[in-house]
Amino acid sequence: MTVKVFQCFGQEKHAQSFPAEPVPKCEVRLFEKSTVEKAATGPRKKHRGFRLAVMTGKMTKNLRGIDQDILPTTPIQFSHLRGDNGHPALLLKIDDGNLRSSMVFTFDEPDQRARLHALLTGGVIGREETVYGEVPIQSFAIEEPGGLAPRLAGLEWQSVRIINEDAFDIQNTKTVLSEHLRVIMDFKTGTLTDRFNIGPGELKIRLDLHSTNELKILRQPQHDMTIMATQANNRQISLPRNSLRFWGQSPERKQLVLIIIFQHFETKNGSVPIYKKWDAATTRVQLVQKEKTVQLLAFFENFNHGDCMGFTLKSTDTFESSNKSGKFSLRIVDAKFAMPKPRGEGNAALDSAFVNLDMPDYPGEHDDITVVFDTETERDAFAKSLPAPVKAASRMGSVRRDKSKLLDI
Questions:
Q1: 246 touches 218 (CB < 8 A)
Q2: Which of 117, 257, 356, 387 has a beta carbon 3.0–4.6 Å from 287's, enabling a disulfide?
Q3: Distance (Å, rounded) from C-alpha 137 to C-alpha 217?
């Protein structure tokens, strides 16, 4: 890209080697830096910031250049300015830990400024990419387990876009081990770009029991996030070794089929001769679907035996409905599932509260699960999302009832 005028100023050595006055017709190149990490699943490419190169043009007697690293560890300060005769300009203040640079780019057209800004935020759509969703977002925060108050919560968030590799169908989109998946969140005075190059089992989620539009994501520490903000917000932004995020749009490319919040969750443990009853005050149950795979997720609150569970429903499963005793219930006969993970300590306690969609826990339990609804309408809506038709309840009890665990949701 050739800019109309470029100027670099400051006390750094490379700024001193560049002409202090505005230089016309400079050549600007932006390179994305990356590293390749070895993993059991194969090489994984990770974003590590940018390298910005500026070279004086043909109109300058002495050839000079600037080579500036832009690291993802610190925010990029920017301002939209107006140059001579009203030409669009962009001010960048970059701190790579060793050098601080202030650069002003003046462009012939507003589209040139917009493109450079989009390249820095990862907002440019590649040839093999597409935008899978763009929705308003009310809030977003990053929190370290056991750390200080959530970061970034005070910003005025506006919208979120999900970009990934193009596919014929959203259900076929690659989420795990994708080098294209990124989430771009705009706030009033800046942009945050979160790159989701995740391995199998790394991305875990939790749904809030009281707010149906809140999503929590548990992430491993990462080093490939980008924040661009105006100078007014620079003091408010800092990047932690983020692990826990609160936001309102799922990158898991699963279809959210049904949301139901129950006031009662009951488990009868049959591992001993006498059934032991487990109760949870509030439970949220949700069905998610990708292609032909349907999963049931359950999230608990103040449940002594765990915080969540998830398992796969198949077209070969048997589903039975009943109105017995005025209760509108649906039973999954001989369901295959894993019991909720017991809480651990530290990070283990946090991990047990989240479910993973691409690698569900091994279904070591086999027994009936009963879902009880407040109304018949809710039950019928739930039944429509199941992978197999629902039958009338059998008058015979489960053939596994004598040695099983019975879950009443």
A1: no
A2: 257
A3: 15
Question: Long-range contacts made by residues 195-199, C-beta under 8 angstroms, separation at least 24?
Answer: 195/47, 195/122, 195/222, 195/224, 195/225, 196/251, 197/44, 197/45, 197/46, 197/47, 197/224, 199/39, 199/41, 199/44
Four-point Cα dihedral 128, 133, 139, 141, nearest 10: -30
Angle (nearest 5°) at CA 240 between 47 and 204 = 70
In whole angstroms, what is the distance from residue 52 CA to residue 31 CA? 6
- pLDDT means per 10 residues, the chain with 409 residues, are 89 63 93 91 90 88 87 90 90 80 93 96 92 89 73 87 84 83 93 90 88 84 87 46 42 40 49 55 84 90 86 94 86 89 75 89 85 86 92 64 46
What residue spans define the domains of the chain? 2-121, 129-247, 255-408
Distances 61 to 2, 19, 24 between C-alpha atoms, Å: 17, 11, 12
Q: Phi and psi of 25, rounded to 5°?
A: 55, 50
Distance CA 274, CA 276 (A): 6
7-25 pLDDT per residue, tens: 988 655 554 578 888 999 9
Strand partners, 195: 182
Q: Which two tokens stand for residue 233?
A: 């917000």
- Specify the pTM: 0.79
Contact 52, 138 (CB under 8 A): no
**Strand order through the sheet with 88-95:** 65-70, 44-55, 23-37, 2-9, 100-106, 88-95, 76-82, 226-230, 190-195, 182-187, 157-165, 129-136
Contact call for residues 195 and 182 (beta carbons, < 8 A): yes
Contacts of 365 (CB under 8 A, 6+ apart): 335, 336, 337, 338, 339, 405
Q: C-alpha dihedral over 326, 328, 332, 338, to 10 degrees?
A: -100
CA 92 to chain centre: 28
Three-class DSSP category at 229:
strand
CB 103 within 8 A of CB 87: no
Q: Where are the beta strands (DSSP E) in 10-63?
A: 23-37, 44-55
Distances (CA, A) of 300 to 208, 278, 306: 9, 12, 7
Q: How far apart are CA 121 and CA 116, in angstroms?
A: 9
For the chain, what is the radius of gyration of the CA atoms? Answer: 27
Confirm if 116 and 105 have CB atoms less than 8 A apart: yes
Across 137-240, the runs of DSSP E, i.e. the strands, are 141-143, 157-165, 182-187, 190-195, 204-207, 215-218, 226-230
